[in-house]
């Protein structure tokens, strides 16, 4: 069996979707390998799934657990367990939704906000350093294309479930 490192990667000019699949797969794997490290910058007892959850709550204060489950494509029970952990660590606050008393609005606590900001700033600085040779326009273009990819993928996934 030949390892992938000894195979020629797909050529984007002749196999654009094969090349994209490879690059996304590698990005996901690398993100997974550093995910726990990033989460632990927020709190030493967090696992890798916590950071994206905190990021979403930071960007959408007052979000509900059902919104988080839909956004990440996971079950409500999974999100509920993760939120309980974040609440026990003092990183989030939950309060009854005044518009629907069956739901809860979720926000970061002041400590959660500070811890998240430090971890995010560390990630941004790592990106700035690792892509230091890139023009800011190239970075902006990459961010724009990744956002478009993500939105289109989610739209496709939701339509084909």
What's the topology here?
Elements lengths: L15 H27 L7 H10 L5 H8 L3 H13 L3 E6 L2 E9 L1 H21 L5 H24 L2
Antiparallel strand pairs: 1-2
Helix pairs in contact: 1-5, 2-5, 3-4
Task: Give start-end ranges of low-pLDDT stretches.
Answer: none
What is the percent of helical residues?
55-70%
Query: Between the first and last Cα atoms, what is the distance in angstroms?
Result: 34 Å
Report the sheet-strand fraction: 5-15%
Average predicted confidence as pLDDT: 91
Oligomer type: single chain
The sequence of SSEs as H and E is: HHHHEEHH
Strands ordered across the widest β-sheet: 1-2
Give short descriptive properties of this protein.
two-stranded antiparallel sheet, 64% helix, 161 residues, 6 helices, mainly alpha
Task: Describe what this molecule looks like in 3D.
With 161 residues, the protein is mostly helical. Helix content is 64%, strand content 9%.
At a glance:
With 161 residues, the protein is mainly alpha-helical.
């Amino acid at each position: 069996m030949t390892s992938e490192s000894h195979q020629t990667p797909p050529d984007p000019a002749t196999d654009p979707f094969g090349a994209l699949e490879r690059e996304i797969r590698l990005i996901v794997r690398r993100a997974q390998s550093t995910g726990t490290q990033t989460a632990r910058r927020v709190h030493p007892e967090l696992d890798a799934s916590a950071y994206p959850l905190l990021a979403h709550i930071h960007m959408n204060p007052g979000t509900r657990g059902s919104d988080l489950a839909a956004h990440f494509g996971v079950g409500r029970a999974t999100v509920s367990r993760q939120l309980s952990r974040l609440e026990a660590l003092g990183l989030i606050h939950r309060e009854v939704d005044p518009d629907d008393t069956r739901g809860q609005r979720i926000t970061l606590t002041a400590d959660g906000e500070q811890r998240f900001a430090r971890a995010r700033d560390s990630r941004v600085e790592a990106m700035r350093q690792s892509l230091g040779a890139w023009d800011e326009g190239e970075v902006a273009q990459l961010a724009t294309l990744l956002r478009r990819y993500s939105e289109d993928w989610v739209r496709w996934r939701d339509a084909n479930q």
